[in-house]
Amino acid sequence: MRILITNDDGINAPGLEVLHTIATEVAGDGGEVWTVAPAFEKSGVAHCINYAHPTMLVELRERRFAAEGSPADCVLAGVHEVMGLAKPDLILSGVNKGNNSAENTVYSGTIGAAMEGALQGVKSIAMSQYFGPANAKLKNQFEASAQHGAALVKNLLENGIWGGDGYQTFYNVNFPPVAGADVKGTRVVRQGLRPTGGMGVQSHMPPNGRKYLWIKGNPQNVCSGKNSDASVNIDGWISVTPMRCDLTAHDLLDDLESRLA
């Protein structure tokens, strides 16, 4: 199996090393793991692409590349340039430092890479590690994903629902904020929404007298509704959420058409 891995935390992020270990186990004997990751951190860029500017690509060593672009750019570089004429069998994105549950999903460059992989017709999985009091002081904060990641990917490859007409399915996986031994199992759940909502801003007035704004997140260890990702993560479960790039609110189509007729 040939696997392409990427992330949004950057080529030197510890979560990428965890993902490389996971991918190596999944690829098996004779398999290949290729890395194309952003040269610098690209958190929060969602599915952005470097459309108006060229993307510099640097080979660091065999099968390891850094791209001066977004996670989606890295997928495009891997699929169409780095890995030659044959597409990868699987794209893995992560392991993100922090959760991509609930509303975080729509901001996430980790998710953006998996979206692009699905648009390229490749099986794709985004993987993120939730942080909280129970794993904040562990020697390896990625313990849950490191211990359970490979088995989960193998399970999804064997038993997941892939393909379909139109937009392809990809998966958003979040590992709970607990030690590896305390993971309760896996739940297939919907994307939730925390009552605290999306991002906000905090202003800062430096000595030059010009106002600057820092983008800031809201509290993360907040449940996101029954049978949803953040809620089961906080309760110690790995969440698996099937997703597609189709943003249509299908449940509103008929009603809206009748209203506008």
UniProtKB/TrEMBL annotation:
It holds the Pfam family SurE. A divalent metal cation binds at D8, D9, S43, N96. InterPro entries: SurE, SurE-like_Pase/nucleotidase, SurE-like_sf. GO terms for molecular function: 3'-nucleotidase activity; 5'-nucleotidase activity; exopolyphosphatase activity; metal ion binding; nucleotide binding. Its EC number is 3.1.3.5. It is found in: Cytoplasm. Keywords: Cytoplasm, Hydrolase, Metal-binding, Nucleotide-binding. It is an enzyme of class 3 (hydrolase). GO terms for cellular component: cytoplasm. Its cofactor is a divalent metal cation. It catalyses: a ribonucleoside 5'-phosphate + H2O = a ribonucleoside + phosphate. Binds 1 divalent metal cation per subunit. Residues 3-194 form the Survival protein SurE-like phosphatase/nucleotidase domain. Nucleotidase that shows phosphatase activity on nucleoside 5'-monophosphates. Belongs to the SurE nucleotidase family. This is 5'-nucleotidase SurE. The gene is surE.
